[in-house]
Design a protein that fits this description.
Chain lengths: 502, 502
């Protein structure tokens, strides 16, 4: 690891990546139980150091202690869930086709395939989740679970926390006997570019802005050897309310919306940035919003830079003639909520309104004339991490949800998109610009991003990697001649304990 | 479909893609049994039309009838295997997490994920497999199996066959009741570029040269909305022979090598282009090669253009001072085999020798001084579709095979890389420049390339897509709260009948 608050030189990036590659080579044949212990060692060390880490994070990010404790708990849980997942061995996707002289296209040799880790992965931390999407966040945890080495590019917004977290992780891995160099940290923009360009780096995980992510995506695509760029870039997270839901629960919906778009000062990539509602109730919406947000406690945004970007984005939309102001937030050091307002007709004239993310406590309410407009409005959206429908039992919204499935990674029913659980079925992704891939950065499925398949043809039994052996020494799921064979295991997901020291 | 031998205009590409998108929208909710019937209808129509299709293919490609019949049989088998695979429903990766108030990071909502098709896929046909990697080859079959629409860009090398095949496919889909426009064909370079650029095209499948593939990859990456480019670009397919294997089976190995690198006039992406053997037997190799190839029957290469490229590639290597000629092939209209020769020492001085593909009946024999050099030589290779080891039971080649797994998609033991079976465990891929992705273009796993996940949160039971319902109406595998539940089905892979009319 490159210590100190200074930025990492390009030479140091090179030696860090090479050390990561050496550690990857030493560690990649570790059995799943051993690798799971490494993840659990990190989880334990983060739990043991929760109090000072949360204190540092609070100082650097202005986020509330309870929020940071919850985020750290999530981060620790994620490591333990991934440990259990790789013990089960789903990620190997082990597939065995025995020799078959009667195979329909002609004799088939013995052929066996499983997934192997890619190598060194570069992970770019996010500003808004100093734990869960940063040093030991979802990208790092899934890359380590896959068997990769990680070089983490620290976000400047919480550099001290990044360094302390990295020290904790490195010490935990050392103590657990993992190869030295399996995880390390670099800082600074030049280091970031050198990381993306390094020939031994085989994938990038990124959480951040669309502009920054696209620039790095372009950079990976332009490498002599292109590599996957798993960028989670953000979104607008449109919410659609049907006429009957509006009639039945107008006040409840506005209150839920107010809570969701201001949660964490609106600095979530899943913040609802658009609310589509039936027209004709502007004054009522304003009144209910004011009431719902009466107890709002302003806090500083994550950084001066984000604060400037937030103000600029809101001002850009406010300057649009088709937009008026429903709730007039201020832009002091601790901004208060802004709610803008427009109509579906205006959006159809100028769909660019739909593409403007405001990273902070602001959102746009759109009044529509008739519910039949909704599928067409959904088609105007760019790729989304989430979209939400509020509807009643009698509503026919099949066409709307079909359009939303086209455009988003996660669809919610009568809920709010903030809050992204870490589980087997989670998909935190979506069409561009939500992400730059068809994968997820949250949940156990994220592990697959950092693996690639290799097949072995006609190998002697004792030369095969363990996951591909008939006797199945690691007791993992194997698809044998087309039929899955899953050794019975205790389902351990319930046993992933919640242990957070904070 | 755009008929006639003229090239497709950009306007026609637009209307073809739009028709494909409309067909995709109509067809995507078809149940797996219905979609499987569409694939089987295509398979049946190809079998019924085998004789005229093979005749046309032979005329356009100069490939032998038996070879073409085998390729068509493979193509038909592949469609039937994929039909059975989607009936089983593995490709949905259906995952259900029930609501769980005790989830370790905090209460978990009901969350369910499955894979949905991407939309319209552009498929670029290969020159060297007029059936298996062309109009209704692996990319088209897997995209249709996934539920996508396909717009196929015909290869100029067998345009009449492409048009006839497409007519057969379109008629079969129509008769089976598939939405009109689900499959179509375009021709010409301008159409190719328009296809890659079209906003409704959501992925590209490509089999072809590294230069052409890289150019199209760059083009997809530069789109406003980047899309996956699944390019299978080729490779050298190095073969490593240990000292004891060489001592035990020298003549057998040289004979197998001669057969493999000249198979189909050496026009396979899995042709062994490099053979590493112990030094000191140059004269013997020459003699055995000459003997093995005595009965070689020259045939024209696939096209004049490929013939020119082949000659150029061989001449480029022959011009290298470090290379001499073991078998002096000629470059007449029907070329005879060329075998070049160099040493491991020369390769270390000039590794570019390792990167020169010769698409035709030519290969390079490399003599090494000591077996311990092999892992280091393997490290000099670029990404490979395959690599092969010839070794004896007592050989320790663990380090070599580890290096080869780093660099290749499929490792073979005491075999030859030509011949790529279509099965569950097949991986026809590999690090760049073998491919531009971490996926396969052959085997059932190829279907996954054309799918993306979508999650549904807190949806009412009767609003969920069929694959995500607790009652599991399609009887597909579902991972429920972390545990896979696979309804028992007859294993049908044996039932995929071989019916080829030819």
């Amino acid at each position: 690891m490159t210590a100190g608050m200074t930025t990492t030189s390009i030479e140091d990036v090179d030696s860090t990546v090479k050390a990561g590659h050496a550690a990857f080579e030493k560690g990649r044949t570790a059995d799943p139980a051993t690798r799971a212990e490494w993840l659990e060692a990190i989880a334990g060390a983060l739990a043991d150091n929760a109090a000072p880490l949360v204190e540092t994070a609070g100082r650097e990010t202005h986020l509330a202690t309870a929020r940071l404790e919850g985020e750290l708990k999530r981060t620790i849980f994620q490591l333990r869930l991934f440990a259990e997942e790789i013990r089960q061995g789903e990620h190997f996707d082990a597939t065995i086709d025995h020799e078959d002289g009667e195979w329909g296209m002609g004799p088939r040799p013995d052929l066996r395939r499983f997934n192997v880790p890619l190598g060194v992965v570069g992970v770019f931390g996010a500003s808004n989740f100093p734990f869960a999407f940063s040093v030991m966040g979802g990208d790092s945890a899934s890359a380590l679970a896959a068997g990769c080495a990680v070089v983490h590019k620290a976000h400047d917004g919480h550099l001290e926390l990044a360094l302390r977290t990295a020290e904790t992780v490195v010490a935990a891995l050392d103590a657990a006997g993992a190869p030295s160099g399996l995880f390390s940290l670099v800082t600074g923009r030049a280091a970031a570019e050198a990381l993306v360009d390094h020939p031994l780096v085989k994938a990038i995980g990124f959480t951040g802005s669309t502009a920054g992510g696209r620039a790095l995506f372009n950079r990976t695509a332009a490498r002599p050897e292109p590599i996957p760029f798993y960028g989670e870039l953000g979104g607008i997270n449109a919410v659609f309310v049907t006429e009957s839901a509006w009639a039945a629960r107008r006040s409840e919906i506005i209150t839920g919306y107010a809570g969701s778009f201001t949660l964490g000062m609106g600095q979530f990539c899943t913040k609802p940035g658009l609310l589509f509602v039936p027209g004709g109730h502007t004054a009522g919406i304003r009144a209910t919003l004011a009431q719902a947000l009466a107890g709002f406690e302003p806090a500083p945004l994550l950084s001066e830079r984000l604060h400037g970007g937030f103000r600029e984005a809101v001002e850009h939309l406010r300057a649009n003639d088709a937009i008026d102001v429903l709730l007039d937030g201020d832009f002091a050091a601790e901004p208060s909520p802004t709610v803008l307002h427009t109509t579906s007709e205006a959006l159809r004239r100028d769909p660019s309104i739909l593409h403007q993310e405001m990273f902070g406590p602001a959102s746009v309410v759109v009044e529509y004339g008739d519910q039949s407009e909704l599928p067409g409005l959904a088609e105007l959206l760019e790729g989304q991490l989430t979209t939400t429908v509020h509807a009643e039992a009698e509503d026919d919204v099949a066409e709307l949800t079909e359009r939303l499935a086209d455009t988003s990674g996660r669809l919610l029913w009568n809920g709010w998109p903030t809050g992204v659980t870490v589980s087997y079925a989670q998909h935190h992704g979506g069409p561009f610009p939500a992400t730059t891939s068809n994968t997820t950065s949250v949940g156990t499925a994220a592990i697959r991003r950092f693996l690639r398949p290799v097949s072995y043809q006609s190998f002697p039994a004792d030369r095969l990697p363990e996951p591909l052996r008939d006797e199945n020494p690691w007791r993992i799921p194997q698809r044998v001649d087309g039929v899955w064979n899953r050794p019975v295991r205790e389902s351990a997901s319930r046993d992933v304990e919640q242990e957070v020291g904070a």
